[in-house]
Amino acid sequence: MKKIISCILVMILMVSLAGCGNSNESKNAAADNGSAGNASSATSTPAATDAGTATDSTTAVSEKKIVTAIDEMFGSMDPAGFALQTWNGFASLCSTPLLSFDSEGAEVMGAAESYTVSDDQLTWTFSLRKDGKWSDGSAVTADDFINTIKRALDPENSDSIYAEMLYCIKGAEEANSGSGTLDAVMVTAVDEYTLEFQLTKVCPYFKKLLTLPVFYPSKTGVATNEDKEWYKDPAKNLCNGPFMLTEYIQDQSYTVVKNPYYFNADKVNIDTIVNVCISDTQSTIAAYQTGEINACSGLPDYVETQYAGSDELTIWNMLTTTAILPNMDVEPLNNEFVREALALALSREAICASMGANYEPSYTWVPKYMLSNTGSAAFSEEETPFAEDAARAQQLLADAGYPNGEGFPKLTYTYPSSEKDAILAQAIQAQLKAVLNIDIDLAAQESEVYNTTKREGSFELLRYNWTADFNDPINYLSLYTSNSSLNFNHINDADYDAAIENSNTTADPAERNAYLHEAQNILINKNFYVIPVSTMHYIGLRNSNITGITYNDKGEASYTYADIIE
User: Fold this and answer.
1) pTM of the predicted model, to two decimals?
2) CA-to-CA distance for 106 and 285, rounded, in angstroms?
């Protein structure tokens, strides 16, 4: 997404000196994942008693403080609302889901202490921890999870971008479409600390969905759809995570402090985290080097070279893939020989080299670093994808009736207007001309126009990017079923649909994985419906005195148990 917020460094420094606030996080997750902050040890005025850091008026406190840089405040902090960049960073600090997953894909219980699943896999019952508290000291109850879910599904007053992820719950789709009622949505509070979901059908990745915003709790009676900006008020934006919101300054910053009511508060070491908006990369690097911030990410590739071997350098392998979508309704892209020729003609190493050291070739649609469901290995390591082959690409194009590109119609490659996408487009254009002798026009479009073109399917070749919402291959592969609203290039393959359906009806991880691999093989190896090109990693810097950073299954950093050493 394009940056939409601009804060000059002078303002940042004034904000920092004034001890002010916070903003939402980066695209990916609280600290390391977007432009994320840094930590420093400093002496400051004691925090208020309800922040859990009170002292007597005569004693100075050595505050453990981290200042992070974020590039923009985009989206809201409401899990039932427009939960994008702001939500992701804020939630990693201040909100605890029922459960989550660590870097190896193992379950980590959070707001729930246990759960059971019925024999038919349709009823999931979660027992909430009795010591789960909001930052005002009140209990986190089953109704608070239901509050988020039903607000997200409200067809009259919802801004949720993840409402469709709730459709696995009985009655959810009907309620969201207006053909049913919210009262008929089968998520219920059996009692104050027992939450029950009844699913429409077996959903083997249901646990993974619990990491999405719409499955997080929001305080009943406080978080409402009628008050669209409740989350900006720290008195209303109650938190059940390790930190709690104390200040929110739109487009500038937000600040969180240790939550004394967090169930594991005795293991939280950091007192304060300030997330400051700096939209300019050079200003971010300068602020880091002068010590105004302690951590940042989303940096240019030269930083990786400059800090090579340094323990300040942080690398985050993104779960993302950039690909070319050939429109199945456009000739000659409806010819599988043509699509395969396009895929095999590209030198991804050369393309990525032109874009920067943080770009890597991709030969699979499911991201290179996404975990398999059968172990800790990457899903992509379990199969052999296609191989680039210029000579075979030329033969395939000849077999399709276009020897040496003769008679091949001029197609247009549409892409979002950005510097990196322009470089990618020009590299693709040059390589297809050099290898296949075909001419491709380039059409850069501003975000709104590009998104309309994508949704309407009014393109020939489209640059398409997807970043994981949750760590499961189905998040990528389900996009291309014939009934998917995100099937922008109009794939309609009965075998593909069957593979996806079979993966969704088995509870056996190995069998499910086999079906998912079958689906990806149809998608990118057999029919070349999608032409993967690249993935990337995020580059960041973090003070070496910050320890205890942990990572989730998407590679996103957490400061929950971080510390600062002298």
Assistant:
1) 0.85
2) 35
